[in-house]
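Q: Got a minute? One more chain.
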Amino acid sequence: MAEQRVVDAKTAYNLTVRVLCDIEPSVETRFVYLFGQTEFNQKSVLSKAAQLWNEDQSRIICIMGGDPIAGYPGGNAWTDQLVAQDIPWIFTFRIPQLPKTNTFTEAQALVRFLKKQNEKSVYIVGPPFHQVRCFISAVTAALAEYPELKIYNKVGATLDWDERGIHSQGVLTGARKDFIDSEWERIEKYMNLVSPEEALKYLENRDK
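A: Always. Here it is, folded:
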C-alpha cells in the first residue's frame, strides 16, 4: 500500500477554519493568483477576482497562461473572462505553465515568478473546497524556494454545492460537495506536500 499520512482531526479543522477565514495582510499585497479551474468551477475564482479588483484597482490579477489543458480553459479564455468583468488586460499577468500541470506545479510556477519579481506577498484564490490544498501547495513551494514569501487566502465565491460537474484536471466528476472529501484524500495522499501541521505552523509564524 502506498504511503499515506494520517491527519489529526483537530489540526485539519483548525487549518481549514484559518485558511477559509484568513486575516488581512500585514504587508502591502498587490498580486492575486487564481488557481486554474475547470469551466465548471471557474466562476468561483473569476468572480472573486472582480470583487478584489473593485476593492483595489492597483492589484494585478495573475492566472496560469498557456493553451487549454487538463480541463483548464486556458490563459486566453480566462483573460477574456476577466476583461468582460471590466478588469483591464494590462492588470492581468499570465504565469507560464510548468510541465505536468497540477495544483502543486502551479504553486511552484507562482512562487518562482514572485521571487523573480521580488514580491513579498500574494493572495491566492481557489474555490472553497479547493482552497486548503491550494494553500498547502503554495506553502510547500514557498518553503522550498522562497520561505520569506507571505501567502494569504482569499476564498473564491461559493457555488451550488449540489451541482454536478468536472474537477481535478477534468477527470473527477461529481457534485461540488463530493469534492470536499476528495480534496482531503489528496492532502493525505500527496507526500510531496508539507503536512497540515506544517502548513498550520507556517500560518502561526507568517505575520510575526
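A: The two ends are 40 Å apart (CA to CA).
Q: Perfect, thanks.
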